[in-house]
Specification:
alpha/beta, TIM Barrel, 8-stranded parallel beta sheet, two-stranded antiparallel sheet, about 45% helix, globular
Length: about 400
Amino acid sequence: MPSVMRWVFAVLHRPLPEPTRPDSLHDQNDWMTMMNDRKERIALLRKRAENKILILDGAMGTMIQKHKLSEEDYRGERFADWKQDLKGNNDLLSLTRPDIIKDIHLQYIAAGADLQGTNTFSATTIAQADYGMESLAYEINYESAKIARAACDEWEAAHPGDVRFVNGAIGPTNRTASISPDVNNPGFRGVNFDQLREAYKEAVNGLLDGGADALLVETIFDTLNAKAALFAIDEVLEERGEDVPVLISGTITDASGRTLSGQTTEAFYNSVRHAKPFSIGLNCALGAAQLRPYVQELSRIAECRVSVYPNAGLPNEFGEYDQSDAEMAALVKEWAETGMVNLLGGCCGTTPPHIKAIADAVANANPRKLPVIEPKMRLSGLEPFNAA
């Protein structure tokens, strides 16, 4: 039976599993404590989402670039003799410069971010193959989640009752399952569904073992890649006996209003709504001004919460982002005031001042009310098809 069909059958017929301790946690008491703590935090996260617009953090890469790190910083002592250049492998900094990553989390927490995205955008075996570091994928996810958890715990210890949450970031990988990388061979694929699924499963287990409260499938340019991630998440949660919020965020690549694999906003939503996500949203590629019509469309059709974290405007001729925190906050404030969003944050070019400005701008706004959507058969290719 094909793997997708096995998944559909399992979802329809699966019994409620018993929690299973992962191999990386050797003490059953530690495992159960983590499970119980996560359940409590998730319940609090869902409750908080009913009463306020949740604030996501800003760009990790932008903040790392400010440190102007050298090749030696990326290598550290552990990888001093690594056979390939490592500069640019930002996720590796969770192992070699955890102090920098933790400080970035603390800056975003202080700015008002409810959810801290882990430093794991490229932490899959597929993406880490560029550096010959496939074997480190689990460890990077695990340690990155631990760093974000430690930052949240440190803040909460100093500010009792002000709980913050770890958002396990799952990037799109650097390969696409829908589009050939070879213009002379359109049928060729650099990766297949099951390869993606296995890579994502390892990443998800690492994030959860490290203390993530939620999972964010983000910067989706190829919906088939995202489906592999969602499939993997479902398998992992079933195996572990856990129920963790899943956030989904796609990328509209240009003014055409489509993802890189060609889907419109509604077609993309139809493709992933089966996952019953905590939120559906958009991030990256465009600034807030350019994203507005697609945010409005999602707000109209989504049964779940709507999230948006745009870039700080469009890049200039040097590839840098010039939009100020005040300009960006003014744009997203209008979304909040018109009831279009439930979660807001920032992507490329955004910094703690951007997040603080956004948090302040929407502090008194109510989150978007979840609409009652008429039941229909909702299908999708590049365009949506909704049948009565």
